[in-house]
Amino acid sequence: MSTELKSAARPAAPGTGGGKRKLTYPWIMLIVAGALIAVAALRAVSGAADLTSAGQFGAALSAAVPIGLAGLGGLWAERAGVINIGLEGMMMLGSFAAGWVGWQHGPWAAAAAGILGGALGGLVHAVATVTFGVDHIVSGVAINILALGATQYLATLWFGQEGSAAMVAGGNDKQSPPMSDMPTFTVPGLADWLNGIEGHHWFLVSDVAGVLGAAVTGVSWLTVLTIGLFVGTFFLLWRSSFGLRLRSCGEAPLSAETLGVNVYAYKYAAVLVSGALAGLGGAFLAISVHFYQDGQTGGRGYIGLATMIFGNWRPGGVALGAGLFGFMDAMQLRSGGPTVHALLLGLAALLAGLALVRLRAAKRAQAAVAAVAAVVLLVWYALSDSVPLELVEASPYIATLLVLALFSQRLRSPKAIGKPYRRGQGH
């Protein structure tokens, strides 16, 4: 049975599934190392010291956590063959549940409530798609709409009632009362030593010190939990019989069925976990600012879905995409125009490199477009000192779109994703 399931869940060979080279973990580490060297060089050339500071990377880590949890949730569902664009709504439910419970019982209870709130959204999605065969996109959109309406109504009912305990404690119809802080950890001696190295602004050495400093200074325990969830997901889905069966449901559910796999049960489990992870991402947003607030998710569920696609439905790729978005988001919040202006130079270099790659592949039209764009950005950088505020605010989303555009040809989704399944019947 194990051999046949592995055959059912095995990715297509290079050239048949669209990916020329698999995004393995050694490649991910090389990409991360190359990106760090590039950012260090950009910091040295542009003089934007905050680009690689511990504060920048710490803020990036916090911004990446909810995105990464949403993306990881999407990975669980889609590896089992269920498209989940309802991640945004599940994050809303998690954020609201965390705010509701957190002001009364503290941040850890808020995290647990967020998990349950998101899992409830996942259950609704599973019932609609797995049991009743509703189109996955339609169900996901409906969950997003229902979650928005439900959280706004319940916030008015529970937080904004005149004279209620929640309103007396500081809540209103748009937000919950504040909750206590989530515990964090810092390694005092090591943090101070790394901070000193960072202050010297040595090429690469100080930049690495900034990264390591962010990892040992004021780190939330929820961030540590998130890292553990990424590692656990990899081992559970790719190193266990449970994961093999679950992935076979997204690749060849009929073949899995003939080998005794309860496809319905695995799809339900995957979508419930998907909702729970997205809910924890929503809870992280509420806990980090100490209260639930209307519109708090801000489209992060959709960005999480994008990071999952960019990450090729693999935990390491999701983490990489979430880190990229978190870095850009933190940069525009902390530094604004000057640092984003420095990135024009980096983007120009990236496009120049892309032009050379496309030229070697005999794709002259693409090479010409990339080269022209690189020249335009280089001229823009040379003739200006800052960029418009609107571009600064949009920079995380622009970066996400560019990365998806560059890597879209190397992606391969599970074969049976989004397809209706009925026991004993073909598609």
From TrEMBL:
<keyword id="KW-1133">Transmembrane helix</keyword>
<feature type="transmembrane region" description="Helical">
    <location>
        <begin position="137"/>
        <end position="159"/>
    </location>
</feature>
<feature type="transmembrane region" description="Helical">
    <location>
        <begin position="108"/>
        <end position="131"/>
    </location>
</feature>
<dbReference type="Pfam" id="PF02653">
    <property type="entry name" value="BPD_transp_2"/>
</dbReference>
<keyword id="KW-0812">Transmembrane</keyword>
<dbReference type="InterPro" id="IPR001851">
    <property type="entry name" value="ABC_transp_permease"/>
</dbReference>
<feature type="transmembrane region" description="Helical">
    <location>
        <begin position="57"/>
        <end position="76"/>
    </location>
</feature>
<keyword id="KW-1003">Cell membrane</keyword>
<feature type="transmembrane region" description="Helical">
    <location>
        <begin position="211"/>
        <end position="238"/>
    </location>
</feature>
<feature type="transmembrane region" description="Helical">
    <location>
        <begin position="268"/>
        <end position="291"/>
    </location>
</feature>
<feature type="transmembrane region" description="Helical">
    <location>
        <begin position="340"/>
        <end position="359"/>
    </location>
</feature>
<feature type="transmembrane region" description="Helical">
    <location>
        <begin position="395"/>
        <end position="413"/>
    </location>
</feature>
<feature type="transmembrane region" description="Helical">
    <location>
        <begin position="366"/>
        <end position="383"/>
    </location>
</feature>
<keyword id="KW-0472">Membrane</keyword>
<protein>
    <submittedName>
        <fullName>ABC transporter permease</fullName>
    </submittedName>
</protein>
<feature type="transmembrane region" description="Helical">
    <location>
        <begin position="82"/>
        <end position="101"/>
    </location>
</feature>
<feature type="transmembrane region" description="Helical">
    <location>
        <begin position="25"/>
        <end position="45"/>
    </location>
</feature>
